Structures are given as C-alpha cells and as structure tokens.
C-alpha cells in the first residue's frame, strides 16, 4: 500500500524545490490536470493513477519509485540492518 501522506509531502517538496514560489496552478497546468486535483495529491487525500504517476515523475525528473514508493525502500533498508 502506498502512503498517501508521504507521497503528498514529497510532491509538495518537489514543487517547491523546482523553482522558488512555483504554484500548484503552474504545475497542474504543465501536467494537464486541474489544480484541485494536484492539491489533493499534495494533501495526501488522493493518489494519482499509475499513468499519471509516470507523467509526474517525468515532470520532476525523478524515478517513479523515488516519489511514490520511497517509504517502502526505506523500510526494507531498515529491516535489513
């Protein structure tokens, strides 16, 4: 299961790191989605579809796994230690 809250935090962080003061409206327009939908992703209320995950990852120049599955990778590393 994907942790929506962690994903939302990562999406918000990526948006803010992309350029200072990049708005949800600007990113949503670039992604071809409504800003309310992107906001719901950032708040951890919803998760994007697998196809949209790919589009978002490409926009931010990050692997899908790094944005949407990093919590699982970190958990596995801790369990292996």
Automatic annotation (TrEMBL):
Entry-linked InterPro entries: Cro/C1-type_HTH (IPR001387), Lambda_DNA-bd_dom_sf (IPR010982)
Domain of life: Bacteria
HTH cro/C1-type domain: residues covered: 11-67
CDD domains per UniProt: HTH_XRE (cd00093)
Name of this chain's protein: Transcriptional regulator with XRE-family HTH domain
Taxonomic source organism: Geomicrobium sediminis
Lineage, opening ranks: Bacteria, Bacillati, Bacillota, Bacilli, Bacillales
């Amino acid at each position: 299961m994907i942790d929506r809250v962690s994903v939302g935090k990562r999406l918000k962080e990526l948006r803010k790191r992309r350029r200072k003061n990049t708005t949800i409206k600007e990113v949503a327009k670039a992604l071809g989605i409504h800003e309310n939908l992107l906001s719901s992703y950032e708040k951890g209320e919803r998760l994007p579809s697998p196809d949209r995950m790919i589009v978002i990852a490409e926009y931010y120049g990050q692997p899908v796994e790094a944005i949407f599955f990093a919590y699982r990778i970190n958990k596995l590393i801790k369990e292996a230690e």
